Amino acid sequence: MSGAATTRAMLQAVAPGATPVATAIGQPNAIAMGFFFLFIAVTLGITWWAAKRTRTTDDFYAAGRTVTAGQNGFALAGDYMSAASFLGIAGLVSTSGFDGLIYSTGWLVGWPVVLFLIAEPLRNLGRYTFADVVALRLRQTPVRLAAALGTLATVSLYLIAQMVGAGALIKLMFGLSYETSVVIVGLAMLTYVLFGGMIATTWVQIVKAVLLMGGASLLALLVLARFGFNPAALFAAAADKYGSGVLAPGKLVSNPLDAISLGMALMFGTAGLPHILMRFYTVGDARAARTSVFYATGLIGLFYLMTFVLGFGAMVLVGPEVITSVDRGGNMAAPLLAELLGGTPFLGFIAAVAFATILAVVAGLTLSGAAALSHDLWVNVVRRGEASQAEQLRVARGATIGLGVLAIALGITFKGQNVAYMVSLAFAIAASANFPALLLSVFWRRCTTAGAVASMLVGTVVTLVLIGLSPTVQVDILHRAGAPFPLKNPALVTIPLSFLTGIVVSLLAREASAVEGFAGLERRMHLGEAAGD
Amino acid sequence: MHDHEARLTALGSARWKVAGTLTAAVMLLYFGFIALIAYNRALLARPVGRGLTLGILLGALVIVAAWLLTWVYVRWANAHYDAEVGALNR
Asked: What is the value of ipTM here, to two decimals?
């Protein structure tokens, strides 16, 4: 999604001759700073409290498996709803109307898939990472290596997009320098994860989800109050002002295959996002995992329904010209709307919410990356599963520091680059590298080590290569005339390819131990951990 | 023991059937919506009330329907699946 795509555009925000917009956005705003420091103080307090409770690897990676279904529902929503979805979609709707809503639906439909296919098997079969599940009846080393590759590719791309977005947005809203913003986000996130592990991360995500839902609801109510609490009256006002075309599909979806490909990445990518999958280990049992997805889907669905109101509200009340003059990508639609309806205090609150949004997502990402490095690679590959609790925690924290520093470095390296495509690329890799192998290993008796590994490797590598050859990189970034691969997002090709690779390679050679282990896996998947083996 | 295993296999295929059907339903919903956007814009532009086009209504309904499908699954799993899991664990 848009995000920081427009850093450079922002510098030339006010076109020559245009009237500068009267807004406090971009000026150091005492109220925004106040909310911002309040949020930091509260979350550091939570981290201090969580640190005292983080003694074992179960605490660090899985919050001691004591998170309730309701808490996990909020935390899943907090982990998933990024600044791109809050600021980006509201902006897109405010400038292009109906076309923006296509994204609102797309970002939600992955959740039912997570519930139907993934959440419960994952909870019963794994401990900390999705590789636990794939490796359960297959050979550890190759599976862990391939799964860690897929996880780290997904996490790094997602982190780059979030960090660059964080730098640009905080700069835009608070007037801090880009580098300062990136470092603040990196250090705050590092503090949460390093000391408070999954307990602190969970609560940061819950606080963020409550703030985001509260802020968006209040903003939506203030908009609707101007239209007699009737969304149709708001849409009618938009049509009166900008033509009935804003209420119907426009030119954004010019190529149907592109739309379907992106849709596939969003639908199946959610079920392969390592930081989302990891959350299912934090609850007590499969039933709690199930209930938590139901809550999360309701919260996220409600949020995306509110983007209809926020987007059209910004279009009618603020106006697309004003929105794009502040930020060409339209990302400031929701903050401008807040300023218009609630003055500087409400703007400050929404700015702090956007900041909290980014922090919660990067904390979840970093923790899942650290789990892949320490639990999958160090403990299970290097140490063959023989490592003391103290050693595991030490390595996990070392990996967290490494990833935190890397996130800051990547954020600064990619300053001013168009990184919006990296989020959809992260979804494409999650959908092609992680999801097929996970599904095949759980539901298909004949799945072998070679099949799962081939599926994960092909999913990761082909997705990366095809995105490199796609118009997204060739035309938008490198400014070439055309691209060798026609689709902007490769998921339409890479998801079926990854499934096919897994199936064909599994059928080529039997693996007796994998077939024998399937009965035990099935028993444990349905009856829980106690029934395993 | 044999009975236990047969019941477990039956439970597995029942869950797979429900999960598969619901996944197909959510795919049909969403990709059906995308197909309409791609191939029948005129239909989605049709007004169904003042200020409301069929496109906006369907977009909102896709979100609501996806959530209702999760509710259908949770209802089924809490009632039937958990009961059988409980019986098999005893």
From this structure: 0.95
